Amino acid sequence: VGCGITFSPDGATLAVASWDHGVRLHATRDTPDRVLGAHAAPIQAFDVSPAGDRAVTGDEEGRLSIWRLDE
Asked: What is the pTM of this model?
């Protein structure tokens, strides 16, 4: 896979896990874009929680990260 794209449940944010191992949030409304951080290896799994307050990513080395989206 190597990347992923999903909207937050409220549609306010487009979350992108990219080839450079980073996770970016692109606002669809009046909030600034953010970079959450990066994995050491390519991201293979990515999803946003139903509440829209967290995202989870998994890389090809088996590491999982949980990101807060409401900060």
From this structure: 0.70
